[in-house]
Amino acid sequence: MEVFNEIAGLKKQLGTHRSNKQSIGLVPTMGYLHEGHAKLLEASIKKTDITVCSIFVNPVQFNNPEDLENYPQSIVQDLKMLEHLGVDYVFCPSGDEMYPLKPVVLFEFENIGNIMEGQWRPGHFSGVGLIVSKLLNIVQPDMAFFGEKDLQQLILMKRMVLDLNMDVNIVGVPTLREESGLALSSRNARLSDEEKKYAATIFKALSMAKAILMHSGDIQNAKEEARKILDGVAEVEPEYIEIVDPESFEKLSAFQSSAAICIAAKVGSVRLIDNIII
To answer: Which residues are catalytic, by number?
Structure first.
């Protein structure tokens, strides 16, 4: 495994693999890696010849400076994990390497980019679109892997590469969970053991909504019952509960054959998102 901190060196190295007709996979991360990331990396290792993992805490996607400041980092542990998994290259650029000047390019994702996370975190998806497009331009992968836990982000990245004619396949990988149902996330490191128990309520609410949809198809009832579960735990502060089409991300008024139930909630000072796809 080789670690690159500069764009030029990584591009030169990947160029040799590209000239040898080897396929390249990219897993973009912000570090503090866990088993959920491992699942993304294993998918890339299985499907491509060369796997690149990027580690960069992207400042322009944080609308809350405190959230950026508190984002957990563990580069030494991350590198050990990546080497153990068999990752070929790690890209760990500095802020100045990725943004030598303050960026002036903004991404505007209409419709699905303005609901849920787009509504609660203004500017977030613009920052995500910018960093992902930069990484895709630098690495030029055949495939890039994203977790379904961040489903809205996954759908937007698929639309971005389609709209911009980027020659890359965006691959979604299912969410990995703890025994309690809590979705694995780097943010979980900021939760106490007690708060993790409260956070598991999010999965209970998702599961209740799914059961109602599968039984009656009543979207309003599903959202109301999920809200009751979240409201029943004082330490959980729900922000939204939405049921959308998992492909178009349009809000559903009636359930037919598929749906994505999405929840965002704060547990203590930590903001968590999760979803279940039917």
So the answer is: 37
